[in-house]
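User: Here's a chain of 173 residues. Predict its fold as tokens.
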Amino acid sequence: MRDQTMSPLTRRSFLTGLACSGLAGAGSRPARAQAFPQYFSSFAVDVSVLKAKGLGPFADLVAAATLDELRRSFADRVDPRGPRLVVRLTGIFLTPFPDGGGGGDDWRRGGGGSSDSLEGEALAVGRRGEIIARHPQLAVLDVRTSILTPDEPGRAAAVARHYVLWLRRQLIS
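Assistant: Prediction complete.
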């Protein structure tokens, strides 16, 4: 029986295949970007993913800080006819080295990297519960506090407020 091995893939055949696969969808129209509403009837924060990760009361603290900042930052954007703005938070990271890791401020010397982050998405939810628009977001906040007094609850509230402030900048044109 003859050995049937494939001939090696040449650069030319690879690039030809890549070009053909790119042209395969050329006739279809690109998806339109979702326009996010500018006014909202109410605000809510969903931290069910954080609770499923075992954060419990800490997730509630993040939700309360986020909701408080949503109400403050979007106070001029309330209209009872608008959709509901729901922020679904899916991940939070608080650095274990809030003072920069002891290596100085220059990342090349091993310092830096001391930032907290909050990940999630904003959803515009219509009257029947349908999602009208969504906006995924990751907010990162530099932390400069002593490792001896890390203040995780305060840092979590700060990154939640930062998340909402960036959300406002992204959504309101």
